Structures are given as structure tokens and as C-alpha cells.
Amino acid sequence: MSDFKVTHLDAEIDFSKLPYWDVVIIGAGPAGLAASLTTAHRGLTTLVLEAKSEAGGQPN
């Protein structure tokens, strides 16, 4: 059982229209963004979750 819960979600996506995600990537740093490009280019539905308001990770 996890101690984590969603407290806020900034998204204008109607999640009910998507039956599932092929890939969920946690973290929108350089590696997460590169992974999301790879999976999206391969035709996989991809969700990237980021705790901060901006992507970028360490470079920011």
C-alpha cells in the first residue's frame, strides 16, 4: 500500500476517453523527456508525471 496520493493535477485532458496508458513515466527531467519521445515515436500512449510546475529536472 502506498502513502502517496494525488493532491493536485494540472491537466486539460479528458482521461475518461483514454482506456489506459501504455507507458507512464515518472519525472520530466532529461531522461524522462527522452524516454517519452522514444515511446511516443513508437506509437505508445505515454503519460509523463512531474511534481514540479515545469519540466527539465536538474538543468532548471
Folded structure, characterized:
- 20% of the residues lie in helices and 13% in strands.
- The chain has 60 residues and is an alpha+beta fold.
- It has a domain at 21-49.
- Strands 1-2 form a two-stranded parallel sheet.
- The radius of gyration is 13 Å and the shape is globular.
- The termini are far apart.
- The mean pLDDT is 81.
SSE inventory with pairings:
Elements: E1 23-26, H1 30-41, E2 46-49
Quick overview of this protein structure:
Helix content is 20%, strand content 13%. With 60 residues, it is α+β, with helices and mostly antiparallel strands. The mean pLDDT is 81.
Tell me the series of helices and strands, N- to C-terminal.
Answer: EHE
Shape: globular
Uncertain regions: pLDDT < 50 for 5+ in a row?
none
Strand tally is: 2
| Average of per-residue pLDDT values | 81
Rg, rounded, reads 13 Å
Classify the beta-strand content into a percent band: 5-15%
Query: Helix count?
Result: 1
Report the biggest beta sheet as strand number plus sense, adding barrel if it closes: 2 strands, parallel
What is the terminal separation in angstroms? Answer: 33 Å
Estimated structural class: alpha+beta
Give the strand order of the largest sheet, numbering strands 1, 2, ... along the chain: 1-2
**Helical amount:** 10-25%
Feature tags:
60 residues, alpha+beta, single chain, two-stranded parallel sheet, 1 helix
